[in-house]
Amino acid sequence: MATPTRSQVEALHFHNMEKAATEATRLATQIKYDGKNVVKTITALDWTGQTHSAAEIRAVDENQEFRRTAFAMEDLAAAITAGKDDMSRLTGKLKSLTSGYVADGFDVAQNWAVTDGYNYAVAELLVNGLDVPNGMQLLADLKARRLNEAKTATTKLTRLAHEFDAADTACARAIDAATQDINRLAPARAALGGGLGQTIAKKLSAGTALTDFERRALAAGAMLTPEQLQAMRTGKPFELSQGQFDFLTKINRGLDGKSMSDILKIGEGPHHKQIQHNLAAAVEMMGIPNLRTADGDRGGMAQVPNQIRSLLTRNLTSNAYQALPDENEQAPGTYHHYYNIDGLSDLRALSDFISHGDAGLQGSDINRGIEKQVAEINGATAESGRAMSPGMKLGTDQLDKLLSDALVTASQDHIATHDFITGKNMDVTCDNGGHYNAWSHLNDLNSQSFGKHTAGLHGLYDWVGAEANSPNPASAGLAHDAANALGHYLGTSANIGDGGRIEVLNADAARIVEKAIEPYLADFVLEGDLQTLPGHDINTRTPGELQNIFRALNTDGVAAANLNLAASRLENEFAYRYGLTGNGVYGQYTGVLAQAMVDGNQLAVHQLSDDQNAHRMAEYENRLKAIGTAKDAASLFPPGALIALGLSPLSDALAGTAPGQQSGAVQGNSATWVDTLNDPQVLKFSQFVGYSQIHPEIAKENPEWFTDGKPDWNAVHGDPDWKYLMLRISDSWSQGYDDGRRAPDIPGQPGPQMPKDPTAPVG
């Protein structure tokens, strides 16, 4: 892999490598034993002559081949163990050092760059307010020392990250070399074909134990080469040999007619886990449409076992429900609606089955179907959150867990998840010629809370934001396309909500989706190609669509806090770049964004008021209103100009306590706070920061406006000469800003509507 990012290191675990090394060692021991047993068996036979001598010579030769294979297995175990030891040691150091730096007030970026996160602006306010002797010099000394510490820390973390990359590469090469030796000495793949596949399928169906060779063949059949894996992960077609394809076809046909409970029992015995892993991989792999052969065969939904295909394509929901007693029987006389869901237990079993396969497989119709069915079940049970199926009765927490677990499994397939969000390649999940509607399925997921089981929603959306700046073009492209679809979905009035409401009803979904689209906020605003700003090649949203995005997410306070603060930082970035360039288009972009923030927030608050959620309305105006009237430290300074300061330190200084999630919700859609984020004086200061960088003479002519060579907010704010300067250099900005705020709220174009004609079914 490339040099790992911070989030990648924090997610790494190596326990599976230890298990793999142990298994390789066990196999090596078994292979040695089998070789000796061949010789022992032949030499013990009660017969003589040239035939016996020839058999003994053959047995000795085969024993040598067994030993070579065993040695290769031992080399594989040693390579895995050495790599695990080196990489776990390095990740341990990286995690430990990072935690220490963060605890000391430093910020550690994804690329291991360490910056000083100390809030000097607040410290200066406090020093001046308390009249601390030599306070400014002490702060200057502190800043210099911490800057040096940050540089040293960056060097140390970067070196360790490079060492990890080297250890990972060395481990991969050693494993590859040992694996090639094993494949050369014991090439199970060479025996793959329809005949062997049919034999294995029959034995699995009958509950007959597989031989060692047959288990190796099943594993080889469900395995791709590095070249095939690379093509698969980039969404390109990849070719299998006809023998391997025929082998996998027979394995899948052997599962036709079997229920999921029967499939989960296949291979029971000492090798059950191994067989289930390879069987699941064989099923999921054959569900990949990009899998091809030279003769024109291909994978996809049509190739998977028929019972699984039916489970993933038929409509599992209905309007039928039963009023049944509370599932916990703790409230006698209390009844709830339990909606009838067909095949609910089978869906849970399928997601469990696929979770035991290969999480690295990408682009499978199996995962497309799981995500579609989860969304439809979630939408159908939105009223009560309860469901029943033959032999099952699930309360809200149980249903939430089932659906979330299924999403966790399927969403590891980013190609399939991209298609679920965008609607591409999804008609295969609908039976009888039906057509998939992406926005209705997103609404289904956003229609009710998953309770404490939010891992599935994180799996579905987190990667969209995390891969925004991925160095892998394929991963980045999928994320950008998904973000573009989410922006269109959130921005189009006809899409989202119910009965004219425009909101993500599920608060968890609102917060998770907000984080997913946050890196793309600039793309939603900008038109054209500004070389000074990085972009992600996705479509600009109209002012009306931007307003709808803010309205949809601002009905949850935490999502609103994050989105409005991100928008404020972007406005200050535009203001900073206006100061550098004098290009009034930055003012226009800021005006459009500011108006979307204000109008979207106002509509969201009105909607809450119309819903008579008085307690929610009151929360938005309580404890942190005082902070809302102060300048948000993070908004004062555009990214890249000065240290980006967080919200919590300023809250500590003004309110005495840092805001938690609840207070974030309070502040998120407070009208006062949103107006403060658009404070024109703050934006002018950001313009001044940029302007002073390309006009260094300003610092010489007005040194009182600067501290340590950098613009000082407290020094310039209220200074009439500074106001006159900003009035003179802000003409183009002001005109653009006013034009942006007056831009018409052009609504987003409605998406494809759900057909009403029963002859045009929809999955």
Describe the protein.
By secondary structure, this protein is mainly alpha-helical. The chain is built from 35 helices and 10 strands. Strands 5-6-7-8 form a 4-stranded mixed β-sheet. A hairpin with a 2-residue loop joins strand 7 and strand 8 (392-394). Helix 9 crosses helix 11 (272-286) and helix 19 (473-491) crosses helix 22 (543-554). 42% of the residues are buried.
Radius of gyration: 31 Å
Q: Give the distance, in angstroms, between the N- and C-terminal Cα atoms.
A: 39 Å
Described by the principal axes of the CA atoms, the overall outline is globular
Strands ordered across the widest β-sheet = 5-6-7-8
Low-confidence stretches: 612-669, 748-763
Q: Hey, roughly how much beta strand do the residues contain?
A: under 5%
Query: Structural class, from helix and strand content?
Result: mainly alpha
Mean pLDDT: 79
* Biggest sheet statistics: 4 strands, mixed
Q: What is the helix fraction of residues, given as a range?
A: 55-70%
Helix tally equals 35
Q: Tally of extended strands?
A: 10
Quick tags:
four-stranded mixed β-sheet, 763 residues, mainly alpha, two-stranded antiparallel sheet, disordered C terminus, globular, 62% helix
